[in-house]
Amino acid sequence: MGFRRSRTIERFTRREILALCGRAALAYPFTWLPPSGRGFRQPLSSPKALPASDDLLLDQMERAAFQFFWNEASPATGLVKDRALANGGDQRTLSSIAATGFGLTALCIAAERGYASRAQLKARARVTLEFLLSPRMPSVNGFFYHFIDMNSGSRAPNSELSSIDSAILLCGILSVRQYFQDRQIASLATEIYQRVNWPWMLDGRDTFAMAWSPEKGFTRARWDTYNELMMLYLLAIGSGTTPIPPSSWAAWARPTIEYQGISYISGAAPLFIHQYSHAWFDFHNKQDAYANYFDNSVKATQAHKLFCLSLAGKFPGYSDGLWGITSSDSPHGYVAWGGPPAQGPIDGTVVPAAAAGSAPFAFSETLKVMRTIRDHYPFAWKRYGFVDAFNPSTKWVNPDVIGIDTGISMLMAENARSGLVWRTFMANPEAQRAMNLVGFH
């Protein structure tokens, strides 16, 4: 399946980098209905302020996450580290384009929330876009290498040109273009987006290749089965310069699984696949010929919680107030784990981003998890907010945060609070055009 191959590429790249460089390399607020079905609440479009205590908790999380994206980026390039020590003071220089995409969007949230001065945030956005267009930042046909050095922009050893991570970066780029309404930022962002040669990454087929490298060419692995791929296809279809045909939207498979009576589109994949595209594209109250993908993510979150609770007999740390497993660090390195169905060497570890990244889909249930961690597991909260993963039974705690996990937590918290990221990103005409072309209504 496409998902497993995509994470294998990432994990293999991390392993190679570690081997070579050592450890150092490495406008829609919601109200909530009374419980229905299995206890999950459905979002409504009518705005209503969150309770002060809930809003405060999410604000603490977002402020801490922003500090990661501000402190752990190069002021000279704007590139954000792939990971960093959760208490700061990290000396590694490996950045990722995906973390940088989340970081650009974090600048919009910070400006809206007053976490830093608007002038500083605009300047950081401008520096980042200028560097992405500079000769120091290698790209091929508009796509970027997954891992690069945050100071020089040089490609990390054996890093692949990543189609999905380039898409995450572009989502951040289009977010700052729309939010700051700055002529120079808009010009730079548009140039970066318009130079992407989307058909090239199709490699003569109907679905995107996951990666390309100068040593091996295109990978055999394709983005051909439902996962985080929706943003990639929509960005490509909405392009005003080199789009792919709207028919490509129908080219990837949408398998369904059933768990404890819940049927939804998914593969055997961790929960994050139901979150990433939703961080920017607003699928709420929209449907294409196949599904309402927002409701699909509600069901996926519901099934995942029930899956975790089914493991409580083996791992007593899991409970109604503490659950969530998605790709993350573990005591034995970075792993893709989760369910249903069960995948990876599940050992009772909790990944805060699993619940936090689903905040818009199951607000009260996910907030309960975040509150449980914040109140009862103080070792899992550091300078940059929640650590990437911890085990409530063994007391193992990851010393790091990972940019993409911190990023999805921050963006989805803000979407649950205000819909800011959705409202900003969906104002881009390319996003609107793409969703119209593939038949959303």
Q: Mean of the pLDDT scores?
A: 90
Write down the overall geometry.
globular
**Range of strand content:** 5-15%
Low-confidence stretches: 1-47
Give, in order, the helices and strands. HHEEHHEEEEHHHEEEEHEEHHHEEEHHH
* Largest sheet, spatial ordering of strands: 6-8-9
Q: Could you estimate the helical fraction of the residues in percent? A: 40-55%
Biggest sheet character? 3 strands, antiparallel
Q: What's the domain count? A: 1
Q: Tell me the number of helical segments per DSSP (H or I, 4 or more residues long).
A: 14
Terminal-residue CA separation:
29 Å
| CATH top level class name | Mainly Alpha
Architecture blueprint of SSEs:
Blueprint: H1 2-21, H2 52-71, E1 83-85, E2 94-96, H3 97-113, H4 118-133, E3 139-140, E4 143-144, E5 147-149, E6 161-162, H5 163-180, H6 183-194, H7 198-202, E7 208-209, E8 211-213, E9 217-218, E10 222-223, H8 230-238, E11 256-259, E12 262-265, H9 293-310, H10 352-356, H11 363-376, E13 381-382, E14 385-386, E15 400-402, H12 403-417, H13 420-425, H14 429-437
Antiparallel strand pairs: 1-15, 2-5, 3-4, 6-8, 7-10, 8-9, 11-12, 13-14
Helix pairs in contact: 2-3, 2-12, 3-4, 3-5, 3-12, 4-6, 5-6, 8-14
